[in-house]
Amino acid sequence: MPHHVTENEFLERLKPDEVKNILHSIAYKLIRRNTFDDAKVFKKWLVLVDATQTYSSGRQINENCLERHYGKDNDSEDEIVNYHLDVLEAKLYIGNNRVISLASEFIENSEQNRKKYKNMSADRIKQDCETKAFKRLADNLKKMYPKMQKSWPKLGG
User: How many domains would you assign to the chain?
Assistant: First the structure.
């Protein structure tokens, strides 16, 4: 097994689209082989979707961080801002308490959102959320696995 530093150095060189394509290729091949068809429920695949926080700190590491404000109610100077990064994951249940990753969608404040909210007050700004990310994730899953749609329950969007 390679050392974790070696793994990190390798992953740092990969572009996000390359990782996405590798995951898609593995999942697609496993599904097409019909190896895990016995994991279907009523002839439909179980797709599990859950969000995970990947970063949380008082320090903003990039402009895409979501924000949580604490102590803002009293207009005090003791307001604390917590920055966090979240990702929404879609996993396919393949039986025996095993899952494979199908796709990921980051929950983040994009450049498009920042431009839209530039002249709004802080109270009116709506950050990205799991619901919005789920709609994007569902659209991506439909594009990535077009032949499987008939065996899936209805996805949002």
Answer: 1
